[in-house]
Amino acid sequence: MPVRQGKLAGLLVIERPTIGDERGFFRESFRMNELDEARGEPTAFVQENHSRSRRGVLRGLHWENWEKLVYVPRGTVFTAVADTRLDSPTFGKIETFELGETNRWKIFIPRGLAHGYCVLSDEADYTYQVTTYFDGSDTRAVAWNDPDLAVPWPISDPTLSERDKTAPTMRQLFPDRYSG
């Protein structure tokens, strides 16, 4: 099956074959029917976003009120996904991936999972389709270096946005969950 369940509840990994020869390669990066079957419900993407970053840039950990399908068509990134859903059996857990030219996977990230990435190649393009239009009103972030999440970032001194430099920790966001 080209779509498999990740370690976090609802996180899906899409692994489609790549056919290469002396000209380059061809691949179907995903099929909607396979994604819908794995999710058990239809998926309707309404917007696609494309980000280009250089080596050492770290973006995240962010989450919005949408599902997203992530793909790295150029370059290589280390991606981290953290479960920030209080009612989830995998709350506070993480899963990491290396995405891009090394494996060509796509990952489906459900609502309530925060995700971020850092660029390992000279440059990388990071694209993602989403199920809700972005309006800026429902974005949240957690500290990229949160000690409770302990993401094993392969970088110690990343280039960060001001937002990511000051994002709160899981304990600050969810004090009741970490009390005692």
Explain how this protein is built.
The protein has helices at residues 32-39, 162-165, 170-173, 175-178; strands at residues 3-5, 12-14, 18-21, 24-27, 47-54, 58-63, 68-74, 76-83, 94-100, 106-109, 113-119, 123-130, 140-141. It is mainly beta and 180 residues long. A 6-stranded antiparallel beta sheet has the order 1-2-10-7-12-5, covered by helices on one side. The protein has a 5-stranded antiparallel beta sheet with strand order 9-8-11-6-13, with no helix packed on it. A two-stranded antiparallel ribbon has the order 3-4.
Compact summary:
The protein has 180 residues and is mainly beta.
The major beta sheet can be summarized as: 6 strands, antiparallel
CATH architecture field? Sandwich
- Across the major sheet, the strand order is 1-2-10-7-12-5
CATH C-level category: Mainly Beta
Shape by Cα distribution: globular
The number of domains: 1
CATH superfamily: Jelly Rolls
In the CATH hierarchy, the third-tier topology is known as Jelly Rolls
* Fraction in helix: 10-25%
**Average of per-residue pLDDT values:** 93
Beginning-to-end CA distance, first to last residue: 43 Å
Secondary structure class reads: mainly beta
The low-pLDDT segments are none
